[in-house]
Amino acid sequence: MASTILHQSSNGFYKAPVCKGLIGSMFLTCTAINIPMLAHLRQYLLCEVPSVLMTKSAWRILFNRLTFVYSKDIICSALVIYYFRIFERRMGSRKFSSFLLGSCTTATMLEICVILLLKFFDVQSIYSNQLTPGLYGFIFPLYVYYFFDIPRISATYFCGIPFTSKTITYLLGLQIASTSTATALSSICGIAAGLLYRYNFLNVQKWLVVPEVVGKLCDKIFGWLLLSSEPKYRQMGATVELQRQEQADIWEQQYAYNHTPDFRQARGQGFAERLVDDQPDEGLAGFFFRRRGPNLGNSEPSPENVSILVEMGFEQSRAIEALRSSNNDLESATSILLRQ
């Protein structure tokens, strides 16, 4: 199971310092509460609602949100966060941090409302009056984006049921949520928070953001510890696992490409004609020359196309070279870069 998740990309935590710090803080806090000398810190995990809001101990909520009690939840959460680092690469670290801040705050507020509601109707046998320790408000909102934005890659079939790399990730989330009734409700609140954030309920994406000054300050203080160097080598797809890894990376690049403004403008009524050859008698050579156009000379790439490819994660020099080779055609240049 772990190998399937870890084979999704060979880039480690490159361009994902927030996910790296999240996993590190999770392991540090868990280790701290299990060391005999620091066992007294476990009492700070208890966040009884509503007393924690009425006293000056609201800081306990932060500690409560960053710590799991059970080891299996820590391991499963680390694997899920490691795979979900693709969202940080797409959004950027500051925007991803804003997403975590907004979704976790929303999930915590929803969970507190659920506790108060159950307490009002005197059904505390289902759910206690304490916040469940764990990163449910960070992890499960990401499942909303994972469900809507990450395409499914078929891997194998069992009794006619397709099992893909997404299936493994869903099973890990189910394992985290199924510890108890309290963890299940916390997970549901996390998913609801992800939906509210995705559809920008009450303009949450604008008023719950990490300021740019805070982002730069964190980068200066913790950057040396969290930043990872760019990988020097890419593995060749000589095995099935690595081929699946490369396919997942291609899906990731295609997702970014599909969400660029120029691509959405080009995706119209005539887009299918460019994908399907309507003149089969020309042969492969004729189709190639039609795709390249009448002007076979290399034209200078436009700054707009270069900017789009750079935003997708490609190096500027490689993007310019690919656009020159494809006669400044954005689709062909993207295909060239994906095959490199």
From TrEMBL:
GO molecular function: serine-type endopeptidase activity
Cellular component terms (Gene Ontology): membrane
UniProt keyword Transmembrane helix, yes or no: yes
Sorted UniProt keywords: Membrane, Transmembrane, Transmembrane helix
Any Pfam family: UBA
Subcellular location: Membrane
Main localization, broad class: membrane
The keyword Iron-sulfur is annotated on this UniProt entry: no
Transmembrane segments: 21-41, 61-84, 96-118, 130-148, 169-197
Bilayer disposition of the protein: Multi-pass membrane protein
Domain UBA: 300-340
Entry-linked PANTHER family: RHOMBOID-RELATED PROTEIN (PTHR43066), UBIQUITIN-ASSOCIATED DOMAIN-CONTAINING PROTEIN 2 (PTHR43066:SF21)
Name of this protein: Ubiquitin-associated domain-containing protein 2
